[in-house]
Amino acid sequence: MSTALAYASAETTSSKRMPFLLRRLHSLTGLLFGGYIVVHLLVNATLIQGGKGEHDVFQLQVDKIHSLPFLLVIETVFIFFPLLFHTVYGTYLAINGQPNNASYSYGRNWAYLMQRISAMVIVFFALFHILGMKGLLGDALTFVPHDAAATTYRHIHAHWTVAYLVYPIGVLASCFHLSNGFYTAAITWGLTISKAAQKRWGMVCVGIFVFTFACGMMALTAIYSRGDLVR
Question: Residue 146 sits in a domain of what CATH number?
Answer without folding.
Answer: 1.20.1300.10
